[in-house]
């Protein structure tokens, strides 16, 4: 079983993908079948609401809650780690909180297309195709 931190935009894509044979649908299947343990930060919930918009965010957040994704609240340890990442690595605070979630949960990879994650050495950014391969 492969444990994976998932950044906000891949979650957005997962919740809004229309194609039933698309790669995000495949990711959702692997999470449902527990081949991938998907972990997200509670920060992602706030970011998703602003990205999804007023018309659909409530429905999509309910879908997220009913999935097998693990949502990790921001703890004092995560907040301190995020502050250090923000200060030392110059990660934007939202990304720092997400990265700190993965670090605190001892996760080695983050699914993201965000270049901000490239600047830190604690959690390796990977793309969707790599995540699907690792989750076999």
Structure description:
The protein is an alpha/beta fold and 136 residues long. It has a single domain, classed as Rossmann fold (3-Layer(aba) Sandwich). The protein is built from seven helices and five strands. The protein has a five-stranded parallel beta sheet with strand order 3-2-1-4-5. The N and C termini lie close together (8 Å). The relative contact order is 0.21.
Ranges where pLDDT stays below 50 over 5 or more residues in a row are none
Basic shape? globular
Per CATH, the superfamily is: 5'-nuclease
Specify the CATH architecture.
3-Layer(aba) Sandwich
Main sheet: strand order: 3-2-1-4-5
The number of strands is: 5
Counted by DSSP, the helix tally is 7
CATH class: Alpha Beta
User: What level of helicity do the residues show?
Assistant: 40-55%
Structural class: alpha/beta
Largest sheet: 5 strands, parallel
Number of domains: 1
Overall mean confidence score, pLDDT = 91
Distance between the termini: 8 Å
User: What is the fold named in CATH at topology level?
Assistant: Rossmann fold
Q: Taking Cα atoms only, what radius of gyration do you get, to the nearest Å?
A: 14 Å
Reading the helices and strands in chain order gives EHHEHHEHHEEH
Strand content: 5-15%
